[in-house]
Write a structure and sequence with these properties.
The chain is an alpha+beta fold and 288 residues long. It has 2 domains: 205 residues, 3-Layer(aba) Sandwich (Molybdenum Cofactor Biosythetic Enzyme, Chain A); 74 residues, Alpha-Beta Plaits, CATH 3.30.70.1130. β9 and β10 form a beta hairpin. α4 packs across α5 and α9 packs antiparallel against α10. 32% of the residues are buried. The N terminus is likely disordered.
């Protein structure tokens, strides 16, 4: 999607590879890359995103991730399509590789985890490395931290949370004050769900958005998937602009399947849903 090129300290250019003719988009400390990127994405017909979960604790099973589902639901409601989610360990090379792959593929990349005060909080370092920018202590963050922490308690570990890549905007955190940051199309947030949610509330109104997805859930009752798989596949093939999926669940001693239709065109979604309901009704009658 783009590459970041440093031409001079404090001045970078965004090269948009998806443009018919490559354009150079300048920005500086007064014109952060997050703002420039937002202006570009606003012009897009649809807006896409990926989520990158960072942390050994997720991969070891010690911590159960709650952030992917929350971000997916939040973005869907405001018209941003979440296309991919990844989990990587606290390893700089792994984070850099994932960030560079995802930020070039999608309009936005949201990361969670790794921005605390301990030695294994390396997300800021990795993001700076991925985008090829400097990383240093940001006086804006020091000022914020001093609102909660006494000057004598602002030790080296806590000051780690003030290291921000150059050119980034801060993502405010009303829960524990230490901010995330937004640079280019990469939005870096905390891993603690409550804090991440507060940060997402801060950036949400600033995001470029598309048409929200409409979702309709149709109960298939006790009809087994094998009974309706073929006709459902035909309906899905006839509606390529919609996402149609079957989701089995087992409860109360039996299967209770649901068919979910997702799309942005209300008329097409209603037509497909009606076809599915009609198909299920006929199958149920035949099995009665």
């Amino acid at each position: 999607m783009f590459t970041l090129m440093a031409f001079a300290p404090g001045l970078y250019h965004l090269v948009l590879a998806h443009d018919p003719i490559e354009k150079l988009c300048p920005f500086s400390e007064d014109q952060p890359l997050a703002r420039v990127w937002g202006e570009i994405v606003t012009q897009a017909a649809s807006v896409t995103a990926a989520v990158l979960i960072i942390g050994d604790e997720i991969l070891s099973g010690r911590t159960k991730d709650q952030n992917i589902s929350y971000i997916a639901d939040y973005l869907s409601k405001i018209g941003i399509d979440l296309h991919e989610a990844r989990v990587v360990p606290d390893v700089t090379a792994e984070i850099v590789a994932a960030v560079n792959a995802l930020r070039q593929r999608y309009d936005y990349l949201f990361t969670t985890g790794g921005i605390g005060p301990t030695h294994d909080d390396i997300t800021a370092d990795a993001i700076a490395a991925a985008l090829g920018v400097e990383l240093s202590e940001d006086p804006r963050v020091i000022k914020l931290l001093l609102e909660r922490i006494k000057p004598e308690d602002l030790n080296e570990a806590r000051r780690r949370m003030a290291r921000i890549p150059h050119g980034a905007e801060l993502v405010q955190n009303r829960i524990s004050i230490a901010p995330g940051f937004w640079i280019a199309n990469v939005i870096v947030m905390a891993g603690v769900p409550a804090v991440m949610q507060a940060m997402l509330d801060d950036v949400g109104p600033k995001l470029a958005t598309g048409t929200p997805v409409i979702v309709e859930t149709i109960a298939a009752g006790r009809l087994p998937e094998g009974a309706y798989a073929a006709p459902l596949g035909e309906i899905a093939a006839a509606n390529p602009e919609l996402s149609i999926g079957s989701y089995p669940a087992y409860r109360d001693g039996g299967f209770h399947n649901e068919i979910v239709v997702r799309g942005k065109d209300k008329t097409k979604l209603a037509s497909a849903a009606a076809a599915i309901i009609s198909m299920l009704t006929e199958l149920a009658k035949a099995r009665a």
